[in-house]
Amino acid sequence: MHLQSLPALADNYIWLLHDDDGNAIVVDPGEAVPVEQALAARKLQLRAILLTHHHNDHIGGAAVLRQRYDVPVYAPEDARIESATVRVHDGDRITLSQPPASFEVIAVPGHTQSHVAYYGEGVLLAGDTLFSMGCGRLFEGTPAQMLASLDRLAALPADTLLCCGHEYTAANGHFAQEIEPGNAAVSARRQEVATLRQQQRPSLPVTMASELATNPFLRTDAPAVVDWCEREAGHNLDRVARFAAVRAAKDAFRA
After folding, report:
1. How far is CA 18 from the centre of its chain?
2. Does the annotation mark 166 as catalytic?
3. Overall pTM surpassing 0.90 (yes/no)
4. Which of 112, 166, 174, 209 is deepest in the core (most CB within 10 A)?
5. Is 174 a catalytic residue?
6. Confidence band for 255, pLDDT divided at 50, 70 and 90
7. Is 235 labeled as catalytic in the residue annotation?
8. Residue 111: exposed, middle, or buried by beta-carbon count in 10 A (0-12, 13-18, 19+)?
């Protein structure tokens, strides 16, 4: 299975997966044109669309693609996603014959209440729940929900490739260094990202091993993150309160 990010809108990524026989899947097509251009350039046939959540920058092109290619659209149970043809729920498995692929559906409420991620073929299609060195804003969920969602993703194999919905890595890395200034893995990842972006290359995908070493939202139990949170609060915090403190600080952060 081949994996590629397709830039869309201001800073979105649509994810394209395809086999050697020309069968393709797209994930979170915020607009149709980049998908159609990629399919034509690679002589691919679209076979399925996967959607993670209802925000228009992730589903805006799905209806056009569905009409044009007559393919199933997998999406969570949410009336705001009108283009869906197959509703998916936590623990479901999507099995496709073209391309031959299988994905587990993981419910990850927090950014939105109905958000799901898809895990399979060595990749995690995380939408806006988990970013490289960051996580999504809590538009509909609670800190406890988001932390539980991130805990589930953090338990996936370390070699899993994280594919998220936006190119936010440079800004997230700046914030991560503020939380853990002594974390050498964060410094190294920031340098890597700076080089990639200077070359106009995406910072993604990235391994979950890298994220576990650098992402403050996956490191709420790391001593340096605990120390930062408790210095900011002036008292001990449980892990949900630590996550909430880091998320609030990120919301207010200006690079």
Report:
1. 19
2. yes
3. yes
4. 112
5. no
6. low
7. no
8. buried
H-helix or E-strand containing 37?
A: helix 33-42
Residue 243, pLDDT above cutoff 80: yes
Among 128, 174, 227, 238, the one annotated catalytic: 128
Domain ranges of the chain: 2-252
**pLDDT (tens digit, 9 = 90+) per residue, 121-151?**
999 999 999 999 999 999 999 999 999 999 9
Query: Is 58 noted as a catalytic residue in this protein?
Result: yes
Distance set, CA 14 to CA 34, 59, 142 (Å)? 8, 10, 27
From 53, 54, 78, 115, active-site residue: 53
Distance of CA 106 to the CA centre of its chain: 12
Q: Pick the catalytic residue from 18, 54, 58, 115.
A: 58
pLDDT of residue 254: 81
CB burial of 116-155 (b: ≥16 within 10 Å; e: otherwise) equals bbbbbbebbbbbbbbbbbbbbebeebebebbbbbbebbbe
Q: Tell whether the model's pLDDT for residue 106 goes beyond 90.
A: yes
- Single out the residue of 205, 207, 111 nearest to residue 156, CA to CA: 207
Angle at 95 between CA 15 and CA 70, to 5 degrees: 65
81, 113 contact by CB (below 8 A): no
CATH class of 2-252: alpha beta
Active-site residue among 18, 28, 54, 111? 111
Summary mean pLDDT of the chain: 97
Q: Which of 18, 54, 55, 115 is catalytic?
A: 55
